Known about the structure:
Elements (H helix, E strand, L loop, with lengths): L4 E6 L6 H11 L8 E7 L4 H8 L4 E5 L16 H7 L3 E4 L2 H7 L3 H13 L3 E6 L3 H5 L3 H12 L5 H6 L1 E4 L13 H18 L2 H6 L1 E5 L7 H5 L6 E4 L7 H6 L5
Parallel strand pairs: 1-2, 1-8, 2-3, 3-4, 4-5, 5-6, 6-7, 7-8
Keywords: Cytoplasm, Gluconeogenesis, Glycolysis, Isomerase
Family: Belongs to the triosephosphate isomerase family.
Protein name: Triosephosphate isomerase
Amino acid sequence: MARKKIIAGNWKMNMTPSEAVALVNELKPLVANDEVDVVFCVPAIDIIPAMEAAEGTNIQIGAENMYYEEKGAYTGEISPNMLTDAGVKYVIIGHSERREYFAETDETVNKKVLKAFEHGITPIICCGESLTQREQGITIDWIRQQIKIAFLNVTADQAKTAVIAYEPIWAIGTGKVATTEQAEEVCAAIRACIGEIYDQATAEAIRIQYGGSVSAASAPELFAQANIDGGLVGGASLKPDFGKIVNYKQA
Length: 251
């Protein structure tokens, strides 16, 4: 059975609540496409207004981060219960910006992944290499390590429902896009790694996105690859062009 494409927007630290509502309303007719799962991952303060604005549409609202404790003295953090109570179904975990600026590690990513599954939230698990790592020829080794630690103690049934987002760090927000061949090579290696951890059925079920300066121009070719099941889109998700990415088959 073919995997359903999932195209998610990562708004990052953009959009006030009122701006979020305006953007959802603007994008609603542009991203109408029942053939793909459409997710807007928005800042925590935007979740509820965005959820209300998206009601009755094919848009699902996700979060950009989540802590791995239920509650407590963790000032500024968002708990899984807060997300589920708001109706959130997806959460981005381990984005390279979180790793770089907020000292997230493979181990904390794993804790968050386990907690997300515990609460019925689908994690969008990010992985990716730096330009130095690519130039040194260790991309696949690096990605495999990230994946193996992220999925520690995750069951096969849970893993089948997960989303992995491969984002080469050197392509995030730079306008540089990995070539189609580079993106497909790494996504295929990720699927093979999942097959080694679990089995072929799990590897075939899991959805793997490409992210990193995805545009309306690059989406059709990227999403046509055997192992690329959609995209995690940054800057372009804040513009009408996101509709063209979601409806990439009409490009």
